[in-house]
């Protein structure tokens, strides 16, 4: 197994102004122009996954994007990051949200297909968002994590015209054929969806 590549710390990324740009988002020419008000993306930082752990695509041209899948890492943020960067692991997510401060790393461009859902159909048409923590340790589900993740989910939903509803924002455990239980019974779906729906929109 190849050793994971060293990556800069969160503080280094912040100091260097490593905010996510349009190229990292993978929005470019393939993304639709918003036809209505859309929530802005929160500050996000590009930390690329191994190219062995996702499929290059041109979504939403190649595949419609119509779901957001919520995950819990069962790892710390740094350990999950190393997994996404290890070419032997064959797994990734588009984003990961840190517990302590709501820091958001992006690992796969939105136009590309992250390997997160365990179901190829859902992989092709979903954005996967991981959350640092464990399903049985609700202390990891902090105010900062919920707030940052809700802002991100609202922006993704608005960008692709996904309804901000429970039917389109789902847990990993709800993907057909799923063998995972995350985000688990301690994830507060009512609170989370309230936060997602409460996100303001702006004119672009």
Summarize the structure.
The chain has 204 residues and is α/β, with parallel strands linked by helices. The chain has six helices and eight strands, in the order H-H-E-E-E-H-E-E-E-H-E-H-E-H.
Features:
204 residues; alpha/beta; six-stranded mixed sheet; globular; disordered N terminus
Let me know the largest β-sheet: 6 strands, mixed
Number of helices: 6
Q: Proportion of β residues?
A: 5-15%
Radius of gyration, in angstroms, nearest whole number? 16 Å
The helix fraction, in percent, is 25-40%
Quickly give the structural class: alpha/beta
Strand elements, count: 8
- Element-level helix/strand string: HHEEEHEEEHEHEH
Q: Would you identify the regions where 5 or more consecutive residues have pLDDT less than 50? A: 1-23, 27-35
Calculate the mean pLDDT score and round it: 87
Distance between termini? 45 Å
Q: Tell me the overall shape.
A: globular
Strand order of the largest sheet: 1-5-4-7-3-8
């Amino acid at each position: 197994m190849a050793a994971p590549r060293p990556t800069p710390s969160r503080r280094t990324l912040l100091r260097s102004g490593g905010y996510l740009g349009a190229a990292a988002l993978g929005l470019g020419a393939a993304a639709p122009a918003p036809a209505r008000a859309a929530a802005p993306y929160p500050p996000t930082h590009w930390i690329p996954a191994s190219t062995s752990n996702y499929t290059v695509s041109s979504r939403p041209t190649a595949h419609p994007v119509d779901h957001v899948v919520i995950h819990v890492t069962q790892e710390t943020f740094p350990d999950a990051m190393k997994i996404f960067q290890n070419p032997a692991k064959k797994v990734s997510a588009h984003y990961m949200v840190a517990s302590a401060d709501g820091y958001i790393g992006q690992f796969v461009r939105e136009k590309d297909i992250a390997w997160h859902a365990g179901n190829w159909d859902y992989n092709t048409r979903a954005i996967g968002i991981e959350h640092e923590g464990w399903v049985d340790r609700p202390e990891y589900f902090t105010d900062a994590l919920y707030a940052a993740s809700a802002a991100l989910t609202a922006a993704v939903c608005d960008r692709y015209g996904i309804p901000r509803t429970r039917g389109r924002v789902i847990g990993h455990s709800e993907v057909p054929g799923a063998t995972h239980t995350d985000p688990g019974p301690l994830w507060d779906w009512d609170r989370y969806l309230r936060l997602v729906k409460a996100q303001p929109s702006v004119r672009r």
